[in-house]
Design brief:
Blueprint lengths: L3 E8 L3 E7 L5 E8 L4 H17 L6 E9 L2 E2 L5 E3 L11 H8 L4 E5 H11 L9 E6 L3 E7 L2 E2 L31 H4 L1 H13 L4 H6 L9 H9 L3 H25 L3 E5 L6 H15 L11 E3 L6 H13 L1
Parallel strand pairs: 1-4, 4-7, 8-11, 11-12
Antiparallel strand pairs: 1-2, 2-3, 5-6, 8-9, 9-10
Helix pairs in contact: 3-10, 5-8, 7-8, 8-9
The protein binds zinc ion (ZN).
């Protein structure tokens, strides 16, 4: 009998992660590609990665559909209204463009919503009716599960937590607002906090290894150095944890989740991220002494959650 599979692509600010999933959502094939810097090349790269995945499947595999997760404001028809971390994609009719290029049913959704779908159906939030899923990558995406359902909002734009302002006098965000949460608590936020700490003279050891070039510091330099006990890197992680906890606690006050799940590329340093949040999060939630503690856990599907969720949505429409 032909095996039914669905394909899912998570379009990130720096890379595409594509998967093929089987009948139970198991990942059969995984594929990566750098994200191009313009919409035409993004469309071409999307069709290329889909054909690359297809080529790795047995010829008998029956493709039910294709799902694509995109960061930003995506409506129910798959139109990209606003994607500040994807160059030139505002206004892109991605659903229409992909449907005209492919022979399969296509579904487009916000990338973090896709991650939340995957974690809710198969991962850390399985059997949990009220959960918040945050994906920490170039920015911060949010997926909200409330009353057992994914919250999508009137237009499909719900969950844009990364652009919730946490400091109205903060630095300018690519979205045009000031002090958005993702400027401090995402992968690029970690780098921003590192540069700030470096300017204050906290990162002498790391800068020594980087030839003194402050702007060459990457998030990984901080997480790796923090694990080896570098005090400057640990200072950056502490500041990062406080910012991350602030946004999480604000949203916990709004949604009263049973569980918070952290996913996205940054959680490759998972335990370090959890440890950085732990000293701040509980006490920032309203009435923390008088309510159950909200557990914070890592995404079980890891970095692939968005791609797997996109594929699961494609199975739903098939
Ligand atoms: Zn913003």
């Amino acid at each position: 009998m032909n095996q039914k599979v669905a394909l899912g692509i998570d379009v990130g600010g720096t890379k595409f992660l594509g998967v093929a999933v089987g009948e139970k959502g198991e990942v059969l094939v995984e594929c990566r590609k750098p994200t191009p810097d313009n919409p035409k090349s993004i469309l071409e790269a999307l069709t290329e990665i889909l054909f690359e995945i297809r080529a790795q499947l047995p010829s008998t595999a029956l493709i039910e559909g294709v799902g694509v997760g995109i960061p930003g404001l995506i409506d129910f028809r798959g139109n990209v209204h606003y994607a500040p971390n994807l160059n030139g994609c505002n206004g892109l009719e991605l659903g229409f463009e992909l449907k005209s290029r492919l022979d399969f049913p296509v579904v487009i959704d916000n990338d973090a919503t896709c991650a939340a779908v995957a974690e809710h159906l198969l991962g850390a939030a399985k059997n949990c009716n009220d959960a918040l899923v945050f994906t920490l990558g170039t920015g911060i995406g949010g997926g909200i599960i409330a009353g057992g359902k994914v919250v999508r909002g009137a237009e499909g734009f719900a969950g844009e937590v990364g652009h919730m302002a946490v400091d109205p006098d903060g630095p300018l965000c690519p979205c045009g607002k000031k002090g958005c949460w993702e400027l401090y608590a995402s992968g690029s936020g970690l780098r921003y906090l590192a540069i700030q700490a470096g300017e204050e003279g906290h990162l002498k050891n790391i800068l020594h290894h980087k030839g003194g070039k402050l702007f060459d510091i990457r998030g990984e330099d901080i997480t790796e150095a923090a694990l080896t006990g570098d005090i400057g890197a640990q200072t950056v992680m502490e500041r990062f944890g406080r910012w991350l906890a602030l946004g999480m606690a604000n949203l916990a006050c709004v949604f009263d989740p049973k569980l918070i799940v952290l996913g996205g590329g940054l959680v490759q340093a998972g335990d370090l991220i959890l440890a950085s949040v732990a000293p701040f999060f509980d006490q920032m939630v309203e009435g923390w002494r008088y309510r159950p503690t909200i557990p914070v856990v890592l995404a079980e599907l890891g970095e692939a959650a968005g791609a797997v969720g996109a594929a699961l949505l494609a199975k739903e429409i098939a």
